[in-house]
Amino acid sequence: xxxxxxxxxxxxGILRRSAARHPDxxxxxxxxxxxxxxxxxxAVSAAAAGLVARGLQQGDRVAAYGTNSDAYVIxxxxxxxxxxxxxxxxxxxxxxELRYLVVQSGARAVLVDPxxxxxxxxxxxxLAEVEEIVPLRDADDSLLQTATRPAGQFTSAADGDxxxxxxxxxxTTSKPKGAMMSHAALxxxxxxxxxxxDFTADDNPLIAMPLYHSAGMxxxxxxxxxxGATVRLMATPDIPEILRRVEADRIGSLFLAPTVWVPLAxxxxxxxxxxxxxxxxxxxxxxxxxxxxxxxREQFPGMxxxxxxxxxxxxxxxxxxxxxxxxxxxxxxxxxVFFVETRVVDSDGNDVEPGVPxxxxxxxxxxxxxxxxxxxxxEDAFRDGWFHxxxxxxxxxxxxITVVDxxxxxxxxxxxxxxxxxxxxxxxxxxAVSEVAVIGEPDAKWIEAITAVVVVxxxxxxxxxxxxxxxxxxxxxxxxxxxxxxxxxxxxxQSGKLLKRELRSR
Length: 506
Hints:
- By secondary structure, this protein is an alpha/beta fold.
- The chain has 2 domains: about 5-390, Rossmann fold, CATH 3.40.50; about 410-505, ANL, C-terminal domain (GMP Synthetase, Chain A, domain 3).
- The chain is built from 15 helices and 25 strands.
- The protein has helices spanning about 10-20, 35-55, 70-80, 95-105, 115-125, 145, 185-195, 215-225, 240-250, 260-265, 290-300, 375-380, 420-425, 465-470, 500-505; strands spanning about 25-30, 35, 60-65, 85-90, 110, 130-135, 165-170, 175-180, 205, 230-235, 255, 280-285, 305-310, 315-320, 335, 340-345, 360-365, 380-385, 385-395, 400-405, 410-415, 415-420, 435-445, 445-455, 485.
- The strands form 6 sheets. The protein has a 9-stranded mixed β-sheet with strand order 2-1-10-9-11-12-13-14-15, with helices on both faces. Strands 16, 17, 18, 19 and 20 form a 5-stranded antiparallel β-sheet that branches. Strands 4-3-5-6 form a 4-stranded parallel β-sheet, with helices on one face.
- The longest helix has 17 residues, at about 35-55.
- It is globular and about 70 Å long.
């Protein structure tokens, strides 16, 4: 394939340049397998050639459905090198939710962990456009098997302006939106991440959070590969194993969502493991309780904490609170990163004074191009040259941002955004339910626990456990309510609008 003028401005080009600088340095370690930068670059080329050999063409969408692995990383980079559009899917999704993402993206192929292949089989009849189901690993003819076979040089088919990923995100409706991320946008975000988080080749990071999530892949995995670090990868964020790995591998950098940091802070193994190697600790994707943060900072005074804030549409890193800024502003999410401009405005679009709540707007080369096949949502989010985030914040005189609330009715549970309407629709299918409102309530483990407030139909009865089990069969496990409250009526204003804020304050 002939190279294109701006092919250097591609995600796979990052790996190629790191391989040229550090060919024999270990790039990626997963289980008992490891790749040098040269080996990883060769594996990506072989995998890209394998995908093209299956008939996939530039611009085709390829869904990825699996837990963290070396194969998952290679799959993403191979799609980038082949000019394909990667579509990461939360591995907890199944049934209709899984079907919707594969169909809406128009994916022609699905990369899947064999352990999850039955879920694809269950909906296979509805995936008319899917021509290839490719096992990621642990199977004959897997992507990993193809990647580790000798292959010739494969020239990148992508351009910086081409789409690299569709990052699906839920809003207030039940249908997720696919944020269209170009190679150039994500590379800008990688630069911002490296600068704001002080990444170096010697950090020795451990990645335990899911790579289907934009933070795991785009704030940590690719930025660390760009600086030539050795990245150690875990399949899932198991706390005892994280602590063991930090000690055994002398991990220097660790990113966890607050829903992992919180139980980790109270885990008995914390007192028995040697964590002296850990110098950089990043948190984000949901709000970290200040009490837990302060406890960790006191227990590990030599550890530098970074608060990472943003959303998928901006790659996702928008602001960072640096270690030296935590003492004075532990509840802040920091200031904009290198490639991000912000405004804080009122409902009329006017800039607010410092300390006054308003919606945060973004302007940045990191931003997505819009939402896949959803011009209405794109037009609504991008207005007057700015992206409207839907997040209510305050900004002080020095530019530090503090999140107040979400304007949209989105629940952040365990660092994953869940649209309340999705849960409500599932609950409404129970015949005993008259009305329901789903909210997020503060929770020591989940930060925000999905809570259903239910009005039961006259003459009917249902228990909390019966409702939870009913919902469990219809939506992903992380969307199932943790609690159900029964009330006689839901609070509404004079026009009949549901007052969820009042429910949250009870």
